[in-house]
Design brief:
The chain has one domain (23-301): Ribonuclease Z/Hydroxyacylglutathione hydrolase-like (Metallo-beta-lactamase, Chain A, 4-Layer Sandwich), CATH 3.60.15.10. The chain is built from 7 helices and 17 strands. The chain has helices at 72-79, 97-100, 103-109, 142-147, 222-233, 251-264, 276-287; strands at residues 23-30, 48-55, 58-64, 89-91, 114-118, 127-129, 133-135, 150-154, 160-162, 165-167, 184-187, 190-193, 202-206, 210-215, 237-243, 268-272, 299-301. It has a 7-stranded mixed beta sheet with strand order 8-5-4-3-2-1-17. A 6-stranded mixed beta sheet has the order 9-10-13-14-15-16, with helices on one face. Helix 6 packs parallel to helix 7.
């Protein structure tokens, strides 16, 4: 396939200027459940969002995660009549199969060389016990991404993708109640717990509103992630969408996380995927109608 040559310029966000988008739309291509009335869509454990923005008529289109293998995000997008050809970039929140597994099919489908933005550790070994040892990373490597048409942009620091749109880069760990547990990797020939430093979020600064923080699983902790986003951009939080990783959290972590989120007072939280029913119920107790769970097929416009 012939592809035009594309380039991506990585620049620093100016805290003084705080560039913002005029509007943003988030389409849920893959999530663990399907929105009512949409039987033509398929749900599977995983996550994929299409994030569209516009600034002064200039549009951007970014995929945040690509769901599990092989091509569920593609099939659901076609069923929804959502065009994901020629997306400007693909952002991978972290290297677990349910977020990165569909990447090669997406890249082969796209009409041009596609920047793939991720942390340098995205392809580090990923294991968990479910209940026995299981590999939970992607079944391909860096070279496969290039061969499929991707252009890796693996960076620890924030990456600007478009005006008002950037990644968090590596998330700082500050809270004493958010610990990353249950995942394993190999470092220096030793089998060790994986702190999931490769996880990052996507940030969209919406004009006259504030930051939309889009998470994959928030393994570093949703509070760590949101605080990092605020410090990185100097902008208040408007909304949070994605997995909050409270599904298997104990009551102490759930209560502390939700209490802190309530103090941050976002206009809306759109939980899904690994948030879990306990976390969603607690969010509803504190945030009421501002907690709006999302599913495959849902669309959020800001």
């Amino acid at each position: 396939m012939s592809r035009p040559k594309d380039t991506v310029k990585v620049v620093n966000i100016s805290r003084g200027r705080r560039p913002a988008v005029d509007w943003a739309r988030l389409t849920v291509l893959v999530e663990d459940s399907v929105s009512k009335g949409k039987p033509n869509l398929v749900a599977k454990h995983g996550l994929s969002f299409l994030v569209e923005t516009s600034v002064a008529g200039v549009k951007s289109s970014i995929l945040m995660d690509v769901g599990p293998p092989p091509d569920l995000a593609l099939r659901n997008s076609e069923a929804m009549n959502v065009d994901i050809r020629n997306v400007d970039a693909v952002v991978i929140s972290h290297g677990h199969y349910d977020h990165v597994g569909g990447l090669l099919d997406i890249l082969k489908h796209n009409g041009r060389w596609t920047p793939v933005v991720a942390h340098p550790n995205v392809f580090s070994p990923k294991f968990a016990f479910k209940p026995n040892l299981r590999f939970i990373g992607p079944n391909f490597d860096h070279e496969s991404v290039v061969a499929a048409g991707g252009r890796p942009l693996f960076a620890r620091n924030p990456v600007t993708l478009a005006t008002g749109v950037m990644t968090t880069g590596e998330v700082a760990r500050e809270t004493d109640f958010e610990e990353t547990q249950g995942f394993w990797t190999v470092e220096a020939d030793r089998f060790v717990e994986d702190p999931m430093i490769d996880e990052q979020a996507l940030l969209v600064n919406v004009k006259d509103k504030g930051l939309l923080v889009i998470t994959g699983c928030a393994h570093p902790g949703i509070i760590n992630t949101v605080r990092h986003a605020q410090k990185t951009t100097g902008t208040d939080i408007y909304a949070i969408a994605g997995g909050l990783h409270l599904e298997r959290a104990d009551d102490k972590r759930v209560h502390a996380s939700v209490d802190e989120l309530a103090r941050m007072n976002p206009r809306a939280i759109y939980p899904c995927h690994c948030t879990g029913s306990k976390g969603i119920l607690r969010l509803r107790d504190f945030l009421g109608s501002n907690c709006k769970p999302i599913q495959t097929g849902d669309i959020i416009e800001l």
